[in-house]
Amino acid sequence: MSKIWFTADTHFMHANVIKYCKRPFASADDMDAHMIEAWNAVVGKNDLVFHLGDFAISRDPRTVRRIFSQLNGSKHLTPGNHDAAATLALPWAKTDQIQFKTVDGLQIVMSHYAMRVWPGQHYGAIQLYGHSHGNLAATRNSIDVGVDCWGFAPVSIEDIRLRLAEAAEPAIEEPRGGLTVR
């Protein structure tokens, strides 16, 4: 039986992301090799992977395709701000700015960017995003699935649920007694 995985912000071939995000790699080649191995260690050939943007930094179609072809699974892209034509031209199963999926009865809204509100939020839908490289705290219904947060590999819905359960809800104060004008 196939599984479903989520990831974002791989930034394949992006040497500067190592410095910007303090990734533990000596070079982009080392980082790419590690992430390909980590991806394929968890994702099976028939699994589904939702990549929430910033797949690769290279604009060379052959190089981007070479990495893409080494990764297991049927891949769906929610484009990010660094996804150039070479990435968008890959044979993704689906490419949309926002994607919706139900997994094990859980409604999921996916975007490269974190949202404050999303469809179904008040009915239990969660939001998965990337872009922030672990710099935005999770809430009980919204979490970063980028590789910087998950050991440089795609993450399962089971692991997402565990981390969401541990997340603190942001403090929101309800107004009391209407508007006070001074």
TrEMBL record:
Residues 3-92 form the Calcineurin-like phosphoesterase domain. Pfam families: Metallophos. InterPro entries: Calcineurin-like_PHP, Metallo-depent_PP-like. It comes from the Bacteria. This is Metallophosphoesterase.
